[in-house]
Structure formats: structure tokens, C-alpha cells
Recover the amino acids of this structure.
């Protein structure tokens, strides 16, 4: 039943790539309606470039209301910052064209640097601040007295589009991020149960690997939705903390299930009952309709299984030749049960939020990863590309090259931090090229002959509704969004449309050339290697673990889980399309979260006065050796004695003292050793 559900899920997902859902149609019709309302309002206000109001609606359009508000909010901030920068730069340097374009290029580089260090939607706002200054500043070239009027007009057009998009997304059949989070979390729980059922029954490895990747991707989406939901409604703030914790618990449960699958032991009387109970529970959870409507019974069962797994098996019960191994697997099973229980409680907390009282907290001894080398490369590339094309424009005095300069600035800044900027930019180019003939037919042939807003709606709606449906589909969102934006840019709708193909084709050519030049820059100038960025994140994860081993302060478990999720979230887009190599990195990153939790368990045990002093010394020595291994061993080098020491300490502890606390220490050592053996290169220092 479980595997049938998994197969049906993937078949449904594939079908969903081509068949628009009801929510897709709502999104498409709502977006097109908001765009038309924005255009009408721009006509009524007699704005100089009314197409910007309608374009903004499609730029910020997202299926979830919180995403629209978040993107619109940061687009507004970025536009205001870019407008102020354009006014300041043009006022100070406007008399010297070479100095002006140089300062604008430097400004774009600075904003690209900041954008590369941030996450969406903040990153989008920072990038927008850079190229907005270019969009406003270049039209005022040679006429600095117009810069304030241009900045005000651009801000007014964009604010109008943001307001129309935000109001319609919130009031017309809204899809709220808070509801989407609950729905996505339910699906994650059922997928986790399906994965665990397969893992506990020895399911197909390839199928489990595919579901493993999907679960990690879904946790990334949950994290993004959390930020959007907080902007969507202040009332969601009390629920943001449960989302953050629940994501960490999802990863912990996933890692525990994977470990039990990878290190399945020969059958013995101590393991069989717990494993069977877990397998039955997750199988029922995955197969039972409406299983998550009431989590109380599942939580009660998980509590009982966790308590049973943490009990020391009777010495008379057959445990095979490796008692510590049995205790280790029982510990992992208990951790899985506890993590799944916390995930279910997190779901309940989202559905029925309660006001949290303030509590004292201290900062963990961990740091957030910022990819400064990658951000510096992106900044240099965007600034240099913009400056070189601007120099060509100033030298040749080709009037249409101003559009090329703007597009180079936009593309080289906006897509700089993507894992594969060439592929994303090429999709943008294809959407732009596809928009050209449609814009020509509507703007140069149809509307001059049949003017008026009614005819405009008749010609444009049949084009934009399918486009918006494509924007709702993750498979086509890049090309469809580029098509919508550039269709409106090429069309340049005004109340009086005229046939004038010369400027139309000249402006269109400058846009296409600008995108191609930006793609050339991505290929030739400091080309990005996603694996370099991935290796820097992996290195940061190893340094996190080393800090856990050595730092005087011990962070809370939830703080480490949150940080580990953040690292995995950053890794996912960099390696998810890299085949087995990417799977090994993702698997290692989840295993690193498990290792970190076991380190915290060892640190906690070493502070327990009931633990013999010699064991405390052994734990400290092991953690120092583990830190050295994490920081200094390179891939391919033979492993140091850390793994062997862990197993030796675990065996010695079990022989000397068979109490519960001591056996748990031994189990933690064995779990760390197993994770490092499973992913030896992940836990080694890269040579780069």
C-alpha cells in the first residue's frame, strides 16, 4: 500500500506538470486582471510609461499571497533605494559621462555583492536597487535636471503595480502561505512515513533515494514559505518558531530512518519488536486517509515506542555478538520516534497557535555562512560587464545601446547568484525572443488599426492567460515570466498606439543583444562553479561540528538543528542536479546534522557528575581528535584513528560499565563513527 501510494504520488506530480490545476487558473486570471487594473489606473493618472505598472504585476506575481507581498515589498524598497542612488549619482557626477557610468557600474557591483550574501526576497531587493539606478539614470543622460521627475515617475508606476498585485492576491480567492505551509508539512510527514516504511522493510534503494531528495527539497520550500507567511500576516509570527523547529525535526527523523536502513542489523530479539512497531506505525500513517486530522493517537504510540527503545534490553535477550551495536540502533530508533513526534506536534502548533512567553536565550557558538568569495566574484562580474558595454555605448554613440547597457546590468546582477546563471539567463532570452513576434503583431499591427482598451483586452488576454498558467508551473516559470515581462515591454501599451516598426525593432534588438552579452559574461568572465560554492558550505558545516567539539559554550539542540537546516537549504540548489555526487553531498549534509546532535549528547554527558572522570576525559580526547579530523584531513587521505577510537571507546565503555548512561555514550560514539564511514569525503577537508 505504501509503495503504491508513492508510485501514485510521482505519477500525479508528473501529470501536474502539463495539466493546470484549479489554483493555477485562479492565479492566471487573478494576475491578468490585476495587470489590466494597474494599466487602467496608470492611464487615468497619465503616467509616462504605463507599461511599467502592468509589468510590475507580472514581475511580483506568485501563486501564494505572502510571496507576492514579500516580493512586492522588497521590490518597493529596492526601487526607492535605486531611485535615490540615481538622483545622488546623477546630481554629483552627471556632468562627466565616463565618471557617471563608472560610478553606476560600481553601484551595481556593490548591490550585486550584497544581493549574493542575502536570500530571497531580500536578495531580490538588493539586486533591484543596483540596476534601478541604471534604468533611471541612463534616460536622464545629458539631462540631469530630469532625474528627479524620472525617479518619481518610475516609483509611482511600480508602486501602482505592487498595490494592484498585492490587493488582488490577498482578496480574490487568496492562496495563503500559512495554509500552504500546513498543506506542505502534511505532505512532508506522509512522504517521511513512506520513506521510513521503505527503509525499515528494506525497500528499493533507488526509490528511497528519490524520495530522500524530494523531502530535502520540500524542507527548503517550507523555509521559504515561513519568511513569506510572516510578511503575509503579523498573526503568523507566533507560528514561525514551530516551523523552524519542525524543519529541523524533519531532517533529524529523515537522517535516523536513513541510518537504520543503511546499518540494518541481523535479526535479534532485542531489535525486532521496536523495528516492527515503527514499521507498522509509519505504514499505517502513510496509508490511512485523513491520518493527520488528529495526531494524538500517533503521538501516544510514538511516545510508547521511544520509551521502549530507550530501555536497556534484558541481558538474557539475544542481542547477537554486538551489544553496543544493538543499543546504538535502538537509540537511533528512539531518536526517529521522538523526532517524528515533534514534527506532529509542530503540525498541531501551526494549526492551533498559542502565544509564546518570552524566554531568556543566549547566542549559540555557531556562525551563519556567507559566501564572500562567490559574492565578490558576482560583484566584479556585474560591474565589469556593465562598464564595458557602457564604454561601447559612449564610444559609438549608438542611441539604442543604452537599452543594451540596461539589460546587461539587469541580467548580470539579477541572475548572478543562481547556481547555473547561464541556464537561467538562456531561459530568459528564450522567453524574450518568443515575446517579440507576439508584441509586434499586437502592438504594431492590431492595436494601431483597432485602438481602444476594449480591443487591447481582446488581443492581450488570450496571450497573457496561458503565459500566467506557465508562470504557475515550476517547469516553465522562468521562460513564461520572461515572456510576460518583455511582451509588455515590447508592446509598450499607450492609449494611442501607432505603427512605427523602426524603433520597435531597434529597441528589441538592443534588449536581445544585452541578454546575449550578459550570457557571454557569465561564460567568459570569472565563470561560476557551483561545486566551489558547495564545497565552501560543506567546509562551514565541518567547522560547525568542530566548534561543537571544542567551544566552551554548548548551543541548544534547536539552535544547531536550525543552523544545520540552513546549511542544507543553501546546498540543495547547488548540487540537486549533480547525480550521484550531489546525492552523496546531500546525504553527508543530513548525516552531519546527526553527528552534530550526537556531539551535543556527548557534551551533555561529559557534564553529568554521575559519569566516571576517566570517561569524561575520554570524551574530551575523542572530541579533540574529531575536530582535527574535520579540519585537516583531505578527501582521499586515509582516515585518522578517530573512527577506530570511537569504536574502541564504545566497546571499552560497554565492557567496563553497562549502565544506561554509559551505554548511551557508547551508542553516540558508534553513530558518529558510522556516519563518517558512510560519507568519508564529506567529513574531510577539501583541497580547494
Amino acid at each position: 500500500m505504501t509503495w503504491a501510494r508513492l508510485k501514485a504520488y510521482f505519477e500525479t506530480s508528473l501529470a501536474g506538470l502539463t495539466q493546470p490545476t484549479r489554483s493555477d487558473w485562479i492565479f492566471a486570471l487573478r494576475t491578468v486582471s490585476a495587470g489590466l487594473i494597474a494599466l487602467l489606473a496608470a492611464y487615468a493618472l497619465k503616467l509616462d510609461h504605463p507599461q511599467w505598472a502592468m509589468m510590475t504585476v507580472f514581475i511580483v506575481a506568485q501563486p501564494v499571497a505572502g510571496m507576492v507581498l514579500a516580493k512586492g515589498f522588497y521590490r518597493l524598497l529596492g526601487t526607492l533605494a535605486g531611485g535615490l542612488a540615481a538622483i545622488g549619482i546623477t546630481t554629483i557626477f552627471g556632468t562627466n559621462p565616463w565618471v557617471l557610468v563608472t560610478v553606476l557600474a560600481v553601484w551595481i557591483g556593490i548591490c550585486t555583492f550584497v544581493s549574493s550574501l542575502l536570500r530571497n526576497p531580500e536578495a531580490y531587493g538588493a539586486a533591484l536597487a543596483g540596476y534601478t539606478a541604471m534604468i533611471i539614470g541612463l534616460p536622464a543622460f545629458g539631462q540631469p535636471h530630469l532625474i528627479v521627475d524620472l525617479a518619481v515617475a518610475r516609483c509611482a508606476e511600480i508602486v501602482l503595480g505592487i498595490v494592484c498585485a498585492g490587493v488582488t492576491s490577498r482578496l480574490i480567492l487568496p492562496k495563503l502561505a500559512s495554509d500552504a505551509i500546513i498543506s506542505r508539512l502534511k505532505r512532508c510527514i506522509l512522504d517521511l512515513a513512506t520513506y521510513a516504511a521503505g527503509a525499515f522493510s528494506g525497500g528499493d534503494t533507488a526509490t528511497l533515494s528519490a524520495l530522500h531528495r524530494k523531502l530535502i527539497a520540500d524542507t527548503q520550500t517550507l523555509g521559504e514559505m515561513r519568511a513569506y507567511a510572516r510578511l503575509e500576516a503579523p498573526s503568523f509570527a507566533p507560528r514561525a518558531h514551530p516551523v523552524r523547529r519542525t524543519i529541523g525535526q524533519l531532517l533529524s527523523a529523515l537522517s535516523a530512518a536513513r541510518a537504520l536502513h543503511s546499518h540494518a542489523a541481523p535479526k535479534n530479539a532485542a531489535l525486532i519488536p521496536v523495528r516492527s512497531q515503527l514499521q507498522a506505525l509509519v505504514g499505517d500513517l502513510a496509508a490511512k486517509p485523513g491520518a493527520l486530522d488528529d495526531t494524538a493517537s500517533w503521538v501516544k504510540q510514538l511516545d510508547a515506542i521511544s520509551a521502549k527503545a530507550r530501555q536497556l534490553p534484558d541481558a538474557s535477550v539475544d542481542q547477537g555478538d554486538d551489544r553496543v551495536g544493538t543499543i546504538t540502533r535502538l537509540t537511533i530508533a528512539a531518536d526517529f520516534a521522538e523526532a517524528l513526534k515533534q514534527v506532529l506536534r509542530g503540525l498541531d502548533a501551526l494549526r492551533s497557535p498559542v502565544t509564546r512567553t518570552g524566554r531568556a536565550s543566549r547566542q549559540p557558538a555557531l556562525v551563519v555562512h556567507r559566501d564572500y568569495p562567490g559574492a565578490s566574484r558576482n560583484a566584479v562580474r556585474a560591474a565589469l560587464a556593465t562598464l564595458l558595454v557602457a564604454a561601447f555605448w559612449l564610444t559609438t554613440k549608438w542611441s539604442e545601446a543604452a537599452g543594451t547597457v540596461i539589460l546587461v546590468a539587469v541580467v548580470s546582477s539579477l541572475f548572478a547568484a543562481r547556481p547555473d546563471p547561464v541556464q537561467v539567463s538562456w531561459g530568459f532570452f528564450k522567453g524574450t525572443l518568443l515575446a517579440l513576434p507576439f508584441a509586434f503583431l499586437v502592438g504594431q499591427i492590431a492595436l494601431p488599426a483597432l485602438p481602444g482598451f476594449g480591443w487591447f483586452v481582446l488581443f492581450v488576454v488570450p496571450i497573457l492567460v496561458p503565459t500566467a498558467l506557465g508562470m504557475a508551473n515550476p517547469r516553465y516559470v522562468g521562460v513564461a515570466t520572461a515572456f510576460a515581462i518583455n511582451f509588455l515591454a515590447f508592446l509598450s501599451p499607450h492609449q494611442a498606439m501607432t505603427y512605427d516598426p523602426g524603433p520597435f525593432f531597434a529597441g528589441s534588438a538592443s534588449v536581445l543583444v544585452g541578454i546575449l552579452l550578459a550570457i557571454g559574461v557569465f561564460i567568459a568572465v570569472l565563470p561560476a562553479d557551483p561545486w566551489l560554492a558547495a564545497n565552501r558550505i560543506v567546509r562551514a558545516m565541518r567547522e560547525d561540528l568542530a566548534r561543537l567539539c571544542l567551544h566552551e559554550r554548548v548551543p541548544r539542540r534547536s539552535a544547531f538543528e536550525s543552523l544545520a537546516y540552513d546549511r542544507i537549504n543553501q546546498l540543495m540548489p547547488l548540487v540537486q542536479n549533480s547525480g550521484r555526487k550531489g546525492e552523496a553531498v546531500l546525504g553527508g549534509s543530513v548525516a552531519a546534522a546527526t553527528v552534530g546532535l550526537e556531539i551535543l549528547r556527548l557534551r551533555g554527558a561529559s557534564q553529568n557528575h554521575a559519569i566516571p572522570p576517566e570517561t569524561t576525559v575520554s570524551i574530551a580526547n575523542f572530541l579533540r581528535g574529531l575536530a582535527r579530523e574535520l579540519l585537516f584531513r583531505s578527501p582521499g587521505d586515509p582516515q585518522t584513528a578517530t573512527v577506530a577510537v570511537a569504536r574502541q571507546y564504545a566497546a571499552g565503555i560497554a565492557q567496563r560499565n553497562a549502565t544506561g548512561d554509559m551505554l548511551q555514550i557508547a551508542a553516540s560514539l558508534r553513530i558518529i563513527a558510522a556516519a563518517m564511514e558512510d560519507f568519508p569525503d564529506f567529513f574531510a577537508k577539501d583541497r580547494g
